[in-house]
Design goal:
Elements (H helix, E strand, L loop, with lengths): L20 H22 L9 E3 L13 H10 L6 H13 L10 E3 L2 E2 L9 H15 L5
Helix pairs in contact: 1-4
GO molecular function, one term: oxidoreductase activity
Family: Belongs to the short-chain dehydrogenases/reductases (SDR) family.
Keywords: Oxidoreductase
Length: 142
């Protein structure tokens, strides 16, 4: 999963000092999982549930930005990709499946719970990222 490519760099969260597209993408996916976990804790007992979802490799127009090497690799990977409708299934599942209500904050792929890296389960980093996000937004979550 893409979140395994990333690390959270709190001192360079926008990758202004050092940018690499794959690492930035991985950081964004890792941040998504960490923020989902944090939000789930804050929304506990409110009736609102949240989930981090991996849709799979979905055929989108993102390939229009790929270089020739990646386009060649895409040709090999394409048979294993999903349509937009197929990619949306896990998101829909998490939104409508009542059995998931007690699993808010979970990470899902292919309409079932999925494992994530140790970094994605780091509650201390999740809190630091939450605090930084609130600071950047100029808000205080109580």
């Amino acid at each position: 999963m893409a979140h395994s490519w990333g690390t959270i760099k709190l001192d360079d969260i926008n990758s202004e000092r050092s940018y690499h597209s794959r690492r930035a993408y991985g950081q964004s996916k890792l941040a998504n999982i960490l923020c989902t976990r944090s939000l789930a804790k804050r929304l506990k007992d409110t009736g609102v549930t949240v989930y981090a979802v991996h849709p799979g490799i979905v055929r989108t127009e993102l390939k229009r930005h790929m270089n020739l090497g990646l386009l060649c690799m895409w040709k090999m990977v394409r048979p294993f990709t999903k349509t937009a409708v197929q990619g949306a299934q896990t998101l829909i599942y998490c939104a409508v499946e009542p059995a998931l209500d007690s699993h808010s904050g979970g990470y899902y792929s292919n309409c079932r719970p999925s494992s994530c890296t140790r970094a994605a389960r780091d509650d201390e980093m999740a809190q630091k990222l939450w605090d930084l996000s609130c600071q950047m937004l100029g808000m205080n979550w109580e």
